[in-house]
Automatic annotation (TrEMBL), chains A, B:
InterPro entries: aa-tRNA-synt_IIb, aa-tRNA-synth_II, aa-tRNA-synth_II/BPL/LPL, Anticodon-bd, Anticodon-bd_dom_sf, Pro-tRNA-ligase_IIa, Pro-tRNA-synth_IIa_bac-type, Pro-tRNA-Synthase_IIa_type1. The gene is proS. Belongs to the class-II aminoacyl-tRNA synthetase family. ProS type 1 subfamily. It comes from Pseudoxanthomonas wuyuanensis. It catalyses: tRNA(Pro) + L-proline + ATP = L-prolyl-tRNA(Pro) + AMP + diphosphate. Consists of three domains: the N-terminal catalytic domain, the editing domain and the C-terminal anticodon-binding domain. The keyword Chloroplast does not apply. It is found in: Cytoplasm. The lineage of its organism: Bacteria, Pseudomonadati, Pseudomonadota, Gammaproteobacteria, Lysobacterales. It is an enzyme of class 6 (ligase). The keyword Cytoplasm applies. Catalyzes the attachment of proline to tRNA(Pro) in a two-step reaction: proline is first activated by ATP to form Pro-AMP and then transferred to the acceptor end of tRNA(Pro). As ProRS can inadvertently accommodate and process non-cognate amino acids such as alanine and cysteine, to avoid such errors it has two additional distinct editing activities against alanine. One activity is designated as 'pretransfer' editing and involves the tRNA(Pro)-independent hydrolysis of activated Ala-AMP. One of its GO terms (biological process) is prolyl-tRNA aminoacylation. This is Proline--tRNA ligase.
Length: 564, 564
């Protein structure tokens, strides 16, 4: 490809509403242009990247045994009513009336359409398992479209749906898709994590998200340095603590006249924050509960709600606190309650000795507290806190917390759609069986933006090679005036092409400064300069996109470097 | 590919509303399934064909220098109002309101969106010419969707739009696209014609349609056996006739008491129909006109309206005929008018001698009529008739009339959109210039149906090789019970793959009858049978889809045949 025959238009300015670096860089590189709110045209440059991502996704889906098909973007209301989602999906569902006033939606996802296809196509267990996928435009009517293609309304998605006779077979395919997704993101050259999104529904981890790691990511992810374990911070499990030390101090009441937070109390007493205990007052249908976490930890509301008896918990009011503990917030603790309470302790708290709690008396805390000696063992011990950066993970590694952008999702759906849409096949015994389903999505257009969030510098995008619009740029100096430069560039281009390297020749005739700035901005991994001076010296100037400096290489060195 | 790992589901029955053979065969082969009126899911089998067509279109567009990009399917009302098409497009335009009550449409074509993109991207003549194309889903809200994907509401289209400083450059690109389209349809292996759709607007033939020829086609097309000339029957030009023979008969009045049509008069007189002349009475703002065509010809209304003075013509009433000719229909002619009339003669009529016309008197015609001798030369001579099958064409060939399905269109748009949307670039002199535009469409999904209309028999589809889901089917007899058969089939499959031949192995374990029926129905061009008996004899049974009988070939013969 010669850039003079392509269409490239870079710009310096970006609109004020482009908050994310990927949005700004995609606009500056001319990869996308806005047509309307949340609607983007992909320029020739942008589409090259999108298609490279699409091709890798397709190859790995095919390799994993899924079969590609394609469903309409416009889908009838009746189908969405069968599943109940016509009403439940909410305002993100773009509803449409045709000339005959029949109602449709623009597909934001296609469980209904694929189940309808499946019930027309599949009638026997012999046809199962099968995994249908499509790479198709989707629409979600976001209330606040922003961040460019990161949260556009119209976007490109790969969605796959598998059908199984048994739950075990669904779990097998779920793992197969998990492996395929890992290959996709590895091949794309992205730093990613598969993150536990939920648990338990059907088989093991019934739902996992794939995140591209980037500081600008919307989600906080905890992962361990010791294994593949990763989870949203909200669901990440803390490691079990070691055994409880023996009591070493006497229990004593200490005056904390204005010290209400654990930090203030620890500072006053001159002890580590880790020796204090935070008390959170809750009400449930079964009465008052005091949840205890270490002073340096945060209560995790999702974990709390999973503790038996706390499913319906809410925070206690000041009146309720006064009624049960006879105290006011800031001085609460498990000792000296005036009415019966239950105590739920985080596992770390249950393993503490000689700790500090509120005295249930304004202006006082109690130090040197020990379980069993000074108060009964907790009514229940559970993991009820957020994990923190640097702590020991269950697998012996360390917990790291990073931010991620969700680009994929694998999900054991079960029989929600097949049941509501009355899809059955005959099983081995000739009886009607409702197939189990899995669904597996990848946000193709979103990957493009996420990759930029992860890979850029002040000069522009730094594409991982498999996603780059071209792997190599051959920059020609004065190509119109200098036939030797043009010939040498063409020869090099032909050699690269013969070696299967996707190169572009910048023959636009720009001066070196603007030309190099363009090539850096659009993120080409390798830059070669062909100039009169270089040819005279028998050298090509080469620079990797991430390298500090250029170097002069002979043709052989250059080809060896690029082939490597 | 092994069919056991694919998803294939053929059926015997088709719905009553499937009128076209392509619709029936696509349903029977399981290529498509209906989701709703005019909305079809492409099964894995159907999508393979669609993607093969798409790939060939993309390759030829790229080769022709067009650059691919992609516009949203959902486009804002404001843009369509700029061109005036929001109101003018009619009910085929699917209009949509989003959650904020803003109005959009589902793109049926993208002149507005591409012009908006161009005016953001292009500012100088140096960036022109450029030809942007996309392969993207379109929607037209047909009032009566039918014929399967032939006239679906949602369909796949390749649409291209070029921009030029001069009309000459537009004409150059128009010809370039015309050539690219010819390559596309040739490579697809289809019998097609480029048909003149209109003429004159900007450069030469300003608009041409590409038709796949098939008996079921909606349009009648006239083409010449002597050149590339082809046109819709309504616009096809008749060849100029030879010189007028000398008069040989005396003029005489003949009694035709009940004979009103040329056929009846010719039969009564015992002469060839070609010696009679049909008179058609017209009124215009400038008075009465008698249009004359030969008795065996049909007046062409479109050509008639192009004759100077006839732009506003209508058929004359019986009262007007009585007023000007003093006669009643069935006996009209150019002689003996009672008020002044103009005579417009088809070129063939002007070249006749000794012909028969109505006498303008009930029950009589006049025979042996000759121009100049018996009546003045016609006021105007023009081509005002439909061409007919078998006549001599302008280029010396013969006219053939066939039916066609429109699958492509190239069009010199001119400045309609760039002007209404105020798109200018700076020309060489630094002045604002409004670029000329061309647009070029190919109906990708429609091509699939059109190819079937052209290529099928009682047993099913007969794919041209470049469009076939697979080129070769290897049918294995008892593959589960016979390891030798399975191994031999796998080895053959590997050899074909190594030779770049797209093969599928039918390892579903069906009995030969149903298996062969499936393979014929889905139209695979080459079928090979691997069986125990064949292996014992050292032969493979081979049959081309169009062949009457199978033949036994050795491995070497088989590979040579398929490579040929």
């Amino acid at each position: 490809m010669r850039l003079s025959r392509f269409h490239l238009r870079t710009t310096k300015e970006t609109p004020a509403d482009a908050e994310l670096v990927s949005h700004r860089l995609m606009l500056r590189a001319g990869m996308i242009r806005k047509l309307a709110s949340g609607l983007y045209t992909w320029s020739p440059l942008g589409l090259r990247v999108l298609r490279k991502v699409e091709a890798i996704v397709r190859e790995e889906m095919d390799r994993a045994g899924a079969v590609e098909m394609q469903m309409p973007t416009i889908q009838p209301r009746e189908l969405w009513q069968e599943s109940g989602r016509w009403e439940k999906f909410g305002d993100q569902l773009l509803k449409i009336k045709d000339r005959k006033e029949a109602e449709y939606c623009y597909s934001p996802t296609a469980e209904e359409a694929v189940t309808d296809f499946a019930r027309q196509e599949l009638s026997s267990y012999k046809q199962l398992p099968v995994n249908f996928y499509q790479i198709q435009t989707k629409f979600r009517d976001e209330i606040r479209p922003r961040f460019g293609v990161m949260r556009a309304r119209e976007f490109l998605m790969k969605d796959a749906y598998s059908f199984h006779i048994t739950n075990e077979d669904l779990v097998r395919e779920y793992r197969n898709m998990h492996a395929a997704y890992s290959r996709v993101f590895s091949r794309l050259g992205l730093d990613f994590r598969a993150v536990q999104a939920d648990s338990g529904a059907i088989g093991g981890d019934a739902s996992q998200e794939f995140h591209v790691l980037a500081d600008s990511g919307e989600d906080a992810i905890a992962f361990s340095t010791g294994s593949d374990y990763a989870a949203n911070v909200e669901t990440a499990q803390a490691a079990a603590p070691g055994p409880r030390p023996a009591a070493g101090e006497d229990m004593r009441k200490v005056a904390t006249p204005t010290q209400k937070t654990c930090e203030e109390v620890a500072a006053l007493l001159g002890i580590a924050l880790q020796r204090t205990v935070k008390s959170v007052a809750l009400m449930t249908d079964d009465g008052f509960v005091l949840a205890l976490v270490r002073g340096d930890h945060m209560v995790n509301e999702i974990k709390l709600a999973k503790v038996p008896g706390l499913a319906d918990y809410r925070l206690a009011s000041e009146a309720e606190i006064a009624e049960y503990l006879g105290s006011e917030p800031g001085f609460l603790g498990p000792l000296n309650a005036i009415k019966p309470i239950r105590v739920v302790a985080d596992r770390d708290v249950a393993a503490m000795a000689d700790f500090v709690v509120g005295a249930n008396e304004r202006g006082f805390h109690i130090a040197g507290v020990n379980w069993a000696r000074d108060l009964p063992e907790p009514d229940r011990v559970a993991d009820i806190r957020n994990v923190v950066e640097g702590e020991r993970a269950q697998d012996g590694g360390q917990i790291r917390i990073v931010r991620g952008i969700e680009v994929g999702h694998v999900f054991q759906l079960g029989r929600k759609y097949s049941e509501s849409m009355q899809f059955t096949v005959l099983d081995e015994n000739g009886k009607a069986a409702v197939p189990a389903m899995g669904c597996y999505g990848i946000g193709i257009s979103r990957i493009v933006a996420a990759a930029i969030e992860q890979n850029h510098d002040d000069n522009g995008i730094i594409w991982p090679e498999p996603m780059a619009p071209w792997t190599v740029a051959i920059c020609t100096i004065n190509p119109k005036g200098d036939a030797a430069v043009n010939d040498a560039a063409q020869q090099l281009f032909d050699e690269l092409q013969a070696a299967g390297i996707d190169a572009v020749m910048d023959d636009r005739g720009l001066r070196p400064g603007p030309m190099f700035a363009d090539i850096e901005l659009i993120g080409i991994p390798h830059r070669i300069v062909v100039s009169e001076r270089g040819l005279a010296a028998g050298a090509f100037e080469y620079r990797a996109r991430r390298a500090e400096n250029a170097e002069n290489l002979s043709r052989e060195q250059l080809l060896a470097r690029l082939a490597g």
